[in-house]
């Protein structure tokens, strides 16, 4: 009888120990999710361009940067909005990526060789305002759909 009681006690203690381990693992997972949430950063800045083809190229360049979650360029406002993981990248990484594809950002001038290779409709005026108010200035090429 003593062996049976001893066996039950050992099984109960072992079961409690594994429960404690399970609880600890779940707590660690929750903390990890919370720390990922804190690394999420959103920023907006101006990018010169003209049309839907520009939009596709600009967004592809920004989305190609490791750590970028979403990148959206507003054709009319000439404004880029990027949500990214601040622990994996910084703002200059996607400014540089967009510039490498031929487009000027507020911080980095577009690569001239890449600019020359853009389709004619995408060769924007380098003096173009990066208008973030939503007001369209001058001749708006945004209606051009190059599908």
What does this entry look like structurally?
This protein is an alpha+beta fold. It contains 4 helices and 3 strands. The protein folds into 2 domains: 1-38; 40-122, Alpha-Beta Plaits (2-Layer Sandwich), CATH 3.30.70. It has a 3-stranded antiparallel β-sheet. Helix 2 crosses helix 3. The longest helix is centred in the N-terminal third of the chain and has 37 residues, at 2-38. The protein is globular and about 40 Å long. The termini are far apart.
Describe this structure in a few short sentences.
The protein has 4 helices and 3 strands, in the order αβαββαα.
Per-chain topology:
Layout: H1 2-38, E1 40-46, H2 52-63, E2 68-74, E3 79-85, H3 91-100, H4 112-116
Antiparallel strand pairs: 1-3, 2-3
């Amino acid at each position: 009888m003593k062996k049976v009681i001893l066996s039950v006690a050992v099984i109960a203690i072992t079961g409690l120990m594994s429960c404690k381990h399970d609880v600890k693992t779940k707590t660690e997972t929750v903390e990890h999710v919370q720390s990922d949430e804190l690394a999420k950063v959103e920023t907006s800045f101006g990018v010169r361009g003209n049309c839907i083809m520009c939009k596709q190229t600009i967004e592809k360049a920004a989305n190609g940067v490791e750590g970028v979650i979403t990148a959206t360029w507003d054709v009319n406002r000439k404004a880029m909005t990027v949500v990214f993981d601040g622990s994996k990248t910084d703002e200059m990484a996607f400014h540089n990526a967009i510039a490498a594809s031929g487009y000027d950002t507020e911080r980095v001038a577009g690569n001239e060789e890449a600019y020359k290779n853009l389709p004619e409709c995408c060769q924007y005026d380098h003096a173009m305002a990066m208008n973030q108010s939503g007001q369209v200035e001058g001749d708006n090429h945004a209606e051009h759909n190059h599908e």
